[in-house]
Prior knowledge:
By secondary structure, the chain is mostly helical. The protein is built from eleven helices and six strands. It has a four-stranded mixed sheet with strand order 1-2-4-3, sandwiched between helices. Strands 5-6 form a two-stranded antiparallel ribbon.
Amino acid sequence: MFKAYGLYSHIRANRLRSGFLLAGFVVLLLALMFSFALLFEAMGAPRGAPFDWIAARAISDLKEGWPIGVAGAGVWFVIAYLFHQRMIDFATGAHSIDRTEAPRLYNLLENLCISRGVPIPALQIIDSDALNAYASGLKEGQYKVAVTRGLLTELTDPELEAVLAHELTHIRNRDVQLMVIAVIFAGIFAFVSDLIFRSWNFPFGFSPHRPSSREDNRREGGAGLAIIIALAIIALSWGASVLIRFALSRSREYLADAGAVELTKNPDAMISALRKIEAHSVIPTMPSRMHAFFIESPARIQESGWFSTHPSVDERIATLIAYAGGQDAAIAYEEPQRVDGQAIDEQAPEWAQAQQESEASFLPQDGRHPLDPPQKGPWG
């Protein structure tokens, strides 16, 4: 049994986890609606109105108005569903290519798809010297795989095949659907948050054109506190949506790496490709909201911890070595330590030590070279 299947025992758990994460967007939407209701009631509250009174009215507004908010989000989702690929292409700079422009790329992709009996996605190219790739689309017939020109130039055929297999696995596991949906919903929260914080004076949210007497009246009651809480909810909703989007990507990369090995039966090629991509993945002009789509984050400064869009390459390679039996070319053979230019034999691998021992068994034991003329004995 191919060892990579050990990692696939996590597929069901990851899909359930992704479902819970996406369900969290509904909760964030309701929280965002409540914050707007709280802002509305605080701005129109009578002088000296307590916070409890404002919050109760905001909750009542939420109960009456949530269908309108959900409908508005649905309209945005329909627009994004119809035009998501154009949005992605515009953001990444990817454009379609035909077989005459990249016959090698087409042949590798077709061989992979035919071997597994899966539809062939459309191919795109990004005019960048960086090494990176991503897949996108929501359903069969819309899927696309985009690679950079640098990837075509620098990777060998087995390495490029491994990258294409990685992206095909994202498509086969429906990861690209989850990522597109996550980015679409996260875009709503980011848009609203940017609108709020750029249009109003933080932290009180009052327009500078309003009469100062109205501001004083609100601050005397609970309106000021209500506005601060509403803005905090908006900020937290935006932050939570970003974290959820990142988590979707991190949990999927391990499975895509394993799927690539399953398709190509070549874990070393996947590991070697990741090492090359790690060193040249940066695309400075790439929008931050698109980083999670790529096989490796194109950010100039890699994020870490909760804000990372991908697990580290070292972690991914360690998983491939453990489950797929791969070998990391970067550590397959360590150069022996040297003292005064001479290698220390103890640091050499076992096969090198065995070779040295076999050579020593037939070499002259007096230190002479085998080709030196024999020394004269006592009788000449």
